[in-house]
Records
---
Amino acid sequence: MKGNGRKQHMPKLEDNSSSTPSKGEATDETSIIPQLSELTLSEKTAIESEHNIKRSSREVPVEALDQKPSPGDDNAPPVTRPQDCLLEVTSTPDRGLAVFTTRKIKASTLILVETPLIALDKREEDDHAAIEREFSHLPRPTQKLYLKLFDAQKSRMTRIASIYYSNCYNCDAFKSAGKGGSAIGLLPSRINHNCVPNAQFCYDERTNEMRFYAIRDIPRGKEVTSNYDKVVFESRARRQRKHQIYYGFVCRCDACEPKTEFWARSDERRQNMYEAFRTVQGCETQFVSAHNTSDRQNTQQHVIDEALTSLRKLEELLLKESLVGVPLANTYRSMAKWAERKYDVDQVRTWKTKEMQACITGFGHDAPRTKEIEQKLADIETVLRQ
Ligand SMILES: [Zn+2]
């Protein structure tokens, strides 16, 4: 798995400890999307200068790397997937194959849909034999493509298992309780990591599809990236150590190799995010323990205000750092929870609405989390009308 296993595509804001990362660690989180227009000019410049990668002329058609639906049925209508007209796979001088946009893409656009080559439930994903078994069921040409995927050469396992763990995405947040697990796809495996990603992974349990949404506007010819890490507060040095160990690469994103003063302050922003996050965690403990005190109401009110102040700070920092995916959505979810604790319905509605926008951008209109928030907002409206 890229990472110590699976790509943590779903950085889980509320959980700062990661055990076995998979690309796109799917938690039940989402992403809110500050459009570029919402950022200051200097921030825009910083973002737009991101990844000015020299692309080699050797481009690989997406179709060559991806599984099309079986062409056996001549009567079947041709299936067009978003990646067919939005993405291409290109060889880069320093990072192997990478995925680039072939046109300008707006935030919230579904850019990639693929049925996994192998998808394993939680109880099976650490079982190398299960990976071998699923691999043996793949058609021979697909096996050949699988064996060309990046291999971090993990120790004490076969190449097939090592490739799986080097490329699979965590699906925990997207499956019904207990199922979790991970999945590997051909094109998703070509999406490289970036600590400031522009795409969000999610897994659609109903259709068994790996999906990627653009979480920011992406200009034509830019690399599509996702965050393999679950945690977004870590320092550059710590991230780089982790990437080396688990994936065998050195991240050269704007946050890791800053070329501007703005990005040189990335570590400072992430440290401040962590402090705000820890304050909220502390507030949670204080809120619960204030339950049995004589001055409960006043104490809890004070704790709620402190938590909301820290969350506002966290929101601001995440937006500045362009971490507009899951971490931001989770911040809004947390804000709504604290606002609910002080019975401030207007604030609950505000934060839930922002969380929903983030979910739409990162996971789509039909995602279960988006639908849940939609229902919650409808309930709030009903209460307000009464
Ligand atoms: Zn990086």
---
Amino acid sequence: MTASPSDPGARQEPYDLAVVGAGSAGLAGAVTASELGLSVVLLDASAQTGGQFHRHPAPALGARRPEALHHDWSAFTDLRRRLAGSTVTHLAGHHVWSTVREGDGTWTAHAVTGADGTAGRPARIRARTLLLATGAYERQLPFPGWTLPGVVGAGGAQAMLKSGLVLPGRRVVVAGSGPLLLAVASSLAAAGARVPAVVEAAGYLRYARAPLALLANPAKAAEALSHGAALLRHRVRVRPRSAVTEVHGTDRVEAVTVTRLDADWRPVPGTGRRIACDALAVGHGLVPQIELATTLGCATRRLPDGTLGLALDDLQETSERGLWAAGETGGVGGAELARTEGELAARAVAARLLGRRADEDRIAGLRRRRDRLRAFADVMSAAHAPGPGWQDWLTDDTDVCRCEEVTAGRIREAVTELGARDARTAKLLTRAGMGWCQGRMCGTAVSCLAARGGVPEPPAERRPFAVPVRLSALAALDEEPADPHPRTS
Ligand SMILES: Cc1cc2nc3c(=O)[nH]c(=O)nc-3n(C[C@H](O)[C@H](O)[C@H](O)COP(=O)(O)OP(=O)(O)OC[C@H]3O[C@@H](n4cnc5c(N)ncnc54)[C@H](O)[C@@H]3O)c2cc1C
């Protein structure tokens, strides 16, 4: 149920379980925990459930076939039906900016409400356990012209299409690295855009290095084949081992230069070719969104593509007792893995709180599926790990931090002249990463530049505020005791 201030369902604090994130992982976790007898609150910044994968148009847009752009739509409608029939309190439009462990061992989630977090009063929700299912965000590697209007994130283009039914342009080049590019290109083409090329920096043959993980996951190969067939039908050309190394245009995108890359992602001289387009959808993989957990001190692990995910035990618990995580927070692996982990975590929470033996057969099956899908996720992550040569795409006047307008030249100067050796020092010397997005866009690039060709330290995902919060929301914390009846937008 979606709670309103008068809902009795909003008056159960402390809940047994608070789930942050209503994507595949959070939904599966919330409905499973509720079906096992726990009182559950499910918070999400978005107005709708479904997360990134199952984004869908608002009812006001009157889409006749919201499932048209989705694989696995029935998995989502099944979770949505179970949520509607459950006692879960669903707090939509709740942006959780901090989670805190109280002296009595319970957790408080602090949230601001409304579409952009500025509506109504801030909310405080208390629970005995927490499940973080906050997904991932896109990794961007800069190149000359990437800040021109008409350049959008690859996942962002998919989100525009799935939730707003709009295309970023009529002729859209899709570029970067990762399996998401194929999904995005086939959606754009199916929706009527002309896609002159999918430009993938990695080589697909790298998948062949782990034949066992491939053989164990035939459904993944089938999904890739179905995207491939859709691209063939729409005559979309896939260019592996290539990158968009420059965007051209005065007021917006008019063309891109696509260049062949060597195995380290270094441009091969003389191979640049111009392709006319009016939009570029670009992304270089996904980064787990884990600030809420790392700010609490949760341990992390380095993933094969150089990003950080949460270190989890066999039942999805983080290094902080009572705090579980599922889905992309532990490493990017897709919606089926996210659902599996969400259910596994919920069963572990229920066993702990109810003091009952868990259903061992079900748990064993979930673990096996999780391990099989995780093995594939690790192969995928390694195959698309950025090579160090991407830095050769940059010119000194390329903006790296677009919020603070810090160029590659200034960061290089901070490294070579002023002795910066890590992203944090580069940030203090140049302001790169201090703007609105708090380094989510430029963090990877700044770490790579600071490492001077060595192995970069992944940007530390420690931020006291996981989302932007107004001072008035902080001031309200002093005005009231913890609110036993969370208000919703
Ligand atoms: C932009 C983007 C587009 C994607 N598109 C596709 C696609 O088309 N196809 C595909 O196979 N995979 C796609 N993915 C990958 C996809 O995210 C996963 O495969 C799958 O959705 C993972 O499920 P999840 O539950 O872990 O995370 P998500 O589905 O991402 O769900 C996370 C949820 O947490 C919420 N959240 C995050 N932080 C907070 C906070 N602080 N407070 C409150 N709520 C919060 C978000 O609003 C979101 O609803 C995309 C990823 C991104 C980042």
